[in-house]
């Protein structure tokens, strides 16, 4: 009798485990696509309102965290999300608060999907090295609020530096009548990395 009670309780445990497994595998796709698109599209309007911005960040984290166990479901949507957010960071008209907010969103995506997969989505042309380096050089390393921006820029710079080209091609003419205009690109990258 004791044995059959033990077997029944063990079988009940298996059923509970199966229910847990089924519940975690219920996601069949990225069902919050339109909500996420709307949320990302609203960043230019909300980046200055501190309370609204915090709510948007938390909402985005909640959406993305649902896919922590099945991040591959985000793959068909990663490109448009990344492109929308990078457009804000590349725009000359974007204020620093919008740039930082965009990088916070990019960090959340990279955290859920994994930086190795996410890195492949970052633009990695020769023409991207200077803008990323410029954005990186404008960062204050002591500002604890913008660490996600620095992290994402270092990630982006690291993938841009993997391009097989001679970095000295980006230097152009460094001297004009014996006066040094700016440091070589390699020295700038090393200085930023330090």
UniProtKB/TrEMBL annotation:
Pfam families: ARM_TBCD (PF23579)
Domain of life of the organism encoding this protein: Eukaryota
PANTHER family, A to Z: BETA-TUBULIN COFACTOR D, TUBULIN-SPECIFIC CHAPERONE D
Protein name (record): Tubulin-specific chaperone D
Organism taxonomic ancestry: Eukaryota, Metazoa, Chordata, Craniata, Vertebrata
């Amino acid at each position: 009798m004791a044995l059959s009670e033990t077997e029944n309780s063990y079988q009940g445990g298996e059923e509970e485990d199966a229910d847990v497994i089924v519940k975690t595998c219920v996601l069949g796709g990225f069902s919050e696509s339109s909500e996420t698109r709307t949320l990302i599209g609203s960043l230019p309007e909300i980046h200055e309102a501190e309370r609204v911005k915090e709510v948007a960040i938390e909402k985005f984290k909640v959406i993305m965290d649902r896919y922590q166990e099945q991040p591959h479901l985000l793959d068909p949507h990663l490109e448009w999300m990344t492109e929308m957010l990078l457009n804000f960071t590349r725009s000359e008209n974007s204020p620093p608060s919008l740039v930082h907010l965009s990088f916070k969103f990019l960090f959340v995506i990279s955290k859920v999907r994994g930086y190795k997969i996410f890195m492949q989505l970052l633009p990695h042309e020769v023409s991207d090295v200077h803008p990323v380096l410029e954005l990186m050089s404008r960062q204050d390393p002591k500002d604890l609020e913008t660490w996600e921006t620095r992290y994402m820029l270092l990630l982006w710079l690291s993938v841009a530096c993997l391009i097989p080209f001679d970095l000295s091609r980006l230097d152009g003419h460094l001297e004009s009548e014996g006066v040094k205009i700016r440091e070589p690109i390699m020295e700038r990258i090393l200085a930023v990395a330090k």
